[in-house]
What we know:
By secondary structure, the chain is an alpha/beta fold. 59% of the residues lie in helices and 13% in strands. It has a single domain (27-201, 212-256), classed as ATP synthase, F1 complex, gamma subunit (Pyruvate Kinase, Chain: A, domain 1, 3-Layer(aba) Sandwich), CATH 3.40.1380. It is elongated and about 115 Å long.
Amino acid sequence: MATLRDIRRRIRAVNNIQQITRAMYMVAAAKLKRAEEQARAGRPYAAKLRELINRVAGAVQDYSHPLLERREQERRVLLVLITADRGLAGAYNANLIRAAQRALRELEGKDVTLMAVGRRGREFFRRTGIAMVRDELDLGETIEFAKARDIARACKEAFQSGQADRVLLVYSQFVSAVSQRPVVETLLPVGGVEAATPAAGAARAEDPAAGDPYRREYLFEPSAAAILDQLLPRYVETVVYRALLEAKASELGARMTAMKNATDNAEELVETLTLQMNRARQTAITTEIAEIVGGAEALKG
């Protein structure tokens, strides 16, 4: 049975841990608001940019771009995994690693390489022996667009050079402070962008309102193809940047929730230990009184 000294020592240790977890909770809560605003603000921009690309592509016939190239045999796949640099965020990193492992099982038989963005993902997959082409660590508390541009440039170079036939992006989508959803999406080739076909052009000439609402008559300066050549690389950079913002907000939300739960659990543990300490002290006092009374009775006898 634990002595009073042991219980008091445990209470002090739990109180110290509680102070740390409470401080981490407050720091994460303070940073989460800004990160959440950035993540939510990036979604409409990415959606509008994609809509613009679709509209421009609808005015171009037989357009092709290296970032749109779909290869019949996808033998090489680049997996970009975005995790945190630090732990103490609940199941945030573990959920992302499991999502990456599921993607790897689906890609079994193909030549898969990994780009790790974040220390936790790199440290885990380094032990598995998977080929790692690049890692990005210490992104900081503020996600800069220049960092997203560097990652997107590496992905585009790998895709255009033939080192990867497909690029997958694994990150956590921010839903709320208590809910984050791991997402696996195709970054390259860019999907959902289709150029106009002669049939669609003929239908548009007969009836401007026919077919896809994106299939409309536009005047472009410079040409629509030249605009797409500028928009497609920017769109890839925007997708990576949005994924980084979503991941940072998800990390802070998961850390805030985990530290709040840890603080509450520490408080409950202190209450339990205090109750045990009071019971142990009561037992000790009762034992001492019984010994005193027994000694007095022995002296009387």
